[in-house]
Design a protein that fits this description.
about 20% strand
Length: about 190
């Protein structure tokens, strides 16, 4: 059994992921029911505090390390985050950071922008070479593509980007996504 199967199962049982991009969203998410938080903001000076705020609210904190100002894009970012925060996992668009997270035993979500058929084929290749725990695809409002990926990839799919209402949530989940992520606070209550 995979070391993160419990976390993946938890996300399956709680498929609406709150993505926060500012302090207002962070404060609001601590009062909401969903239990998983994608942290999409912060800097090297305050990321520990942001993660601590999420953890204090008894939520799972997954940090999009590419978006944290001052961290850069070298593998040592993952070492820093593991040693200096209480995070539960990371998100990155950078294969090297996903690989480093896996080496350190950190839950890793590979965020991937699907722009065209070439990007789709590249995702298939990267999935096997970097072995993320989950893949987040953007935009998340493509049920046909989501269904195809859910059937062909070996890891659970999260749909993010442009998810704006309950219909988008249900379409993504019905197409085979394990979960959705959204910064839209109205979606958090779906």
């Amino acid at each position: 059994m995979d070391e993160f199967s419990e976390l993946i199962e938890y996300i399956e049982d709680n498929p609406v992921i709150m993505a926060v991009k500012d302090w207002e969203g962070l404060n609001r998410c601590t009062q909401m029911e969903p239990k998983v938080v994608f942290i999409l903001f912060g800097d090297i000076c305050n990321i520990s505090e942001i993660v601590r705020t999420v953890k204090k609210a008894n939520k799972i904190a997954i940090v999009h390390v590419d978006l944290i100002t001052g961290l850069g894009n070298r593998e040592v970012v993952i070492d820093f985050m593991k040693e200096n925060t209480m995070l539960d996992g990371i998100i990155s668009t950078k294969p090297a950071l996903i690989k480093r997270a896996k080496e350190l035993g950190v839950f890793a979500i590979f965020r991937y922008f699907l722009l065209d058929s070439m990007a789709l084929e590249n995702l298939r290749r990267q999935e096997t070479s970097i072995a993320p725990d989950m893949i987040e695809i953007l935009p998340g409002v493509m049920p046909k593509v989501t269904r195809h990926l859910a059937e062909t990839l070996n890891v659970p799919i999260i749909c993010g980007g442009l998810i704006s209402d309950k219909s988008d949530v249900m379409n993504a989940l019905n197409a085979g996504a394990t979960a959705i992520s959204s910064t839209n606070k109205d979606v958090w209550v779906c």
